[in-house]
Amino acid sequence: MEIWLNPACSTCRTAVAELDAAGVDYTVRRYLDDPPTPAELGDVVERLGLEPWDVARAKEAREEGIDLPEDAAHRADWLAALAAHPRAIQRPIITAADGTTVVARDGESLGRVIAAEG
């Protein structure tokens, strides 16, 4: 299991505490220090069943100057922009060994990825 997190984020810290409590082995990726490539982001949004703009933090995207149409023609542009400005990516993103991937901003999503490791 891998968790993309920002250690300054309380939601990320909560997710790590829940993973620890569940006894799940995981690898931490501080995605602000080690940004994902556009290809990695593309894989993640595909596993999530979402589009890149769906995993963008609206306020941070605006602050980073990401102002792109939300359509298929601009999908690659979104991936490149989010890779260049990882602060605009929702967090935490957790991927289980079986490929189950969630944006773990709520207990239900976090529970789903923990169950996938069980």
TrEMBL record:
Name of the protein described by the UniProt record: Arsenate reductase
One Pfam assignment: ArsC
PANTHER family per record: ARSENATE REDUCTASE (PTHR30041)
PROSITE patterns, per the entry: ARSC
Stored InterPro entries: Arsenate_reductase-like, Thioredoxin-like_sf
Similarity-based family: Belongs to the ArsC family.
Database matches in Gene3D superfamilies: Glutaredoxin
